[in-house]
Design brief:
Blueprint lengths: L1 E4 L1 E2 H11 L8 E4 L9 E5 L2 E5 L5 E2 L20 E7 L4 E6 L2 H16 L10 H14 L5
Parallel strand pairs: 1-3, 4-7
Antiparallel strand pairs: 2-6, 4-5, 7-8
């Protein structure tokens, strides 16, 4: 069994808590892999619009469907909105400001791929990386 945590502040907190938990031998836990384009990503916070590294602070699975899925109706990336300060991590938790819109774009991308309308190009690389991570965790260790 593999538990996948978002690559955000809550995911880091959960990973830290699980690191000391007695899990069965066949259990594995990981956070979503880093994506390069999250290193300089638009954000919205109390001080207004900015650009921040949202890796480990606000990267949900939606980030792994490529940058195209993260574009809003205006053609710009849907920003991350900073929400809650998680005191034990001394960091903020963020989430996509228009997550339902991004999820609809992902559904459309998946539909296009399933129907063969669009080849699986480089925009799928983050999802490929996630798949490779999961496969490596699922493979039994050599004895």
């Amino acid at each position: 069994m593999i538990g996948i945590l978002d690559n955000d502040t809550a995911g880091r907190q959960a990973e830290k808590q699980l690191a000391n938990a007695p899990l069965p031998e066949h259990y594995a836990v990981c956070r979503l892999p880093d994506v390069d384009y999250a290193r300089r990503y638009p954000t919205l916070g109390p001080s207004g619009a900015s650009t921040d590294d949202v890796t480990g602070r606000a990267c949900s699975v939606e980030f792994h469907f490529g940058q195209g899925c993260l574009l809003g109706p205006d053609g710009k990336p849907v920003p991350v909105r900073w929400k809650t300060h998680i005191d034990p991590m001394n960091d903020y938790q963020g989430e996509l400001a228009n997550k339902p819109y991004v999820q609809e774009r992902i559904k459309e991308m998946l539909r296009e791929a399933e129907e063969g309308e669009k080849p699986l190009g480089g925009e799928w690389d983050p999802m490929r990386c996630l798949a490779e991570t999961l496969i490596s965790l699922a493979e039994p260790e050599a004895e």
